[in-house]
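Example record used in the benchmark description.
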Amino acid sequence: MKRVMIVGQPGSGKSTLAIRLGEATGLPVFHMDKIHYLPGWVERSATVKSAMTREIHAMEHWIFEGPWRTRPYQTSFIMRLHAV
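Model output (C-alpha cells):
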C-alpha cells in the first residue's frame, strides 16, 4: 500500500479511519482541514494550499483524508485523485 485517499461527508469517520490506518501501516496521514485552514478556521490562500498539496503528492507514500464536495476542497480532490 502506497497511497490511500479517504473521502466522505463531515462526521463520517474519515479522520478516525485515516489515523487508525496510519498507525497500522506506518503511512503518514494528512488531513485536508489542516491544509486548507490555519488555526481558528482562517482559510489559507489558494497558492499556499496548492503548494502544500503538491508537496504531499510528490511523496511516495501517504494517506489523505477529507471531503470532496465542499467548495474549497474540490480542486485538491482532483489533484489527489490523479496522484492515487
